[in-house]
Amino acid sequence: MSLGGFLLACLLLATQCKDGDVIQDPTLYERLGGITAISAVVDQFLANVVADDAINARFAATVADPARTQLLRNNLIDQVCAGAGGPCQYKGKTMKEAHTGMNITTDEFNALVADLVAALDKFNVPAKEKDELLGILGPMQPDIVGQ
Amino acid sequence: MRAFRIPLSILAVLALGAWYWLRVPWSPTQTLAPVSLVAFRLQAANPEAGLALAAAAREWPGVTATTYNPSSDLLALSFTAATSEPDLQRRMETLLPRPVVKARFPAATGPQCPIPHGLLAQIPDVLLWTGLLAGLLSLFAWRLPRRALPATLSM
């Protein structure tokens, strides 16, 4: 047996699937389409929010300052990416810290969620992935509303 | 210069330590092109005209997202540096029979940071370059020879 054949045999032996090996299901991040797709949804979501008179006044200072716009956008992308199992790290404040003193109402929160759902629908995100994503973000409501 | 070697060394350590503590860990998000947001009041004749303009605007260079909200009559756009607010406004006004007005929102209430955010975002870079420069200067200062005493004083 040549050396090459021996090395090939070793490689095959080392990499063969064994009983009990599990093929990993794609993460929500991968099923959503990765960072490019998530950023497209977040951009659409932010456009929806800016056009929504129910809540756009809350974002007036952010829209007026490109640095703040970029920070909000990147934080949103990082939050979705990290929550979906992607290779991102959310570096912003906690939801409680970020919304303290703002007295966000339930109606405002629901308007924001509606804008997010509209963005997901615009990109035809499948129902399963949409529900998973909303399931990750939904529990943030108590830390956002009424702070 | 040699007299500053210790203060420069301390400055380098402190600046680089502060930079390390404040730095933003790398994320794939940093590979994305920055975007800006703007909204215009269209005074659209009907919702269909606004929706059609939003669909057309989505294809313009540099535009990453558009929304027309019929209840607010606002067309909001997300765009990169490939275009600009005046350019977007001009393009819209060529398609609509009337001028469009940039939306002004009521001033937000609630806690506001007194320091412009653009300034805050620069702090890690300033610390990094300060630390590197101080480090280089301190290395140079440590390597300088001690100054020899003048012959008259050594007598």
CATH class of the largest domain in chain B: Alpha Beta
Chain-averaged pLDDT of chain B: 83
Largest interface: A-B, 42 and 39 residues
- Could you state the order of secondary-structure elements of chain B as H and E? HEHEEHEHH
- Lateral arrangement of strands in the main beta sheet of chain B: 2-3-1-4
Spatial extent as radius of gyration of chain A: 21 Å
In short:
With 147 residues, chain A is an all-alpha fold. Chain A has nine helices and no strands. The N and C termini of chain A lie far apart (73 Å).
Structural description of this entry:
The complex is a heterodimer of chains A (147) and B (155). Chain A is mostly helical and 147 residues long. Helix content of chain A is 65%, strand content 0%. Chain A has helices at residues 3-15, 28-32, 34-50, 60-64, 66-83, 95-99, 106-122, 127-137, 141-144. In chain A, helix 3 crosses helix 5 (66-83) and helix 3 (34-50) packs across helix 7 (106-122). The radius of gyration of chain A is 21 Å and the shape is elongated. The relative contact order of chain A is 0.14. The model of chain A has no long low-confidence stretch (mean pLDDT 85). Chain B is of the alpha+beta class. The mean pLDDT of chain B is 83. A 4-stranded antiparallel sheet of chain B has the order 2-3-1-4. Chain B has 2 domains: 2-23 and 121-143; 32-102, Alpha-Beta Plaits. Chain B has 5 helices and 4 strands. In chain B, helix 1 runs antiparallel to helix 4 (117-143). In chain B, strand 2 (63-69) and strand 3 form a beta hairpin. The chains are: A mainly alpha (147), B alpha+beta (155). Chain A binds chain B through residues 35, 39-40, 43-44, 46-53, 56-63, 65-71, 73-74, 77-78, 81, 86-89, 91, 100-103, and chain B through 24-25, 27-32, 34-39, 64-69, 71-72, 74-78, 103, 105-108, 110-112, 116-118, 121.
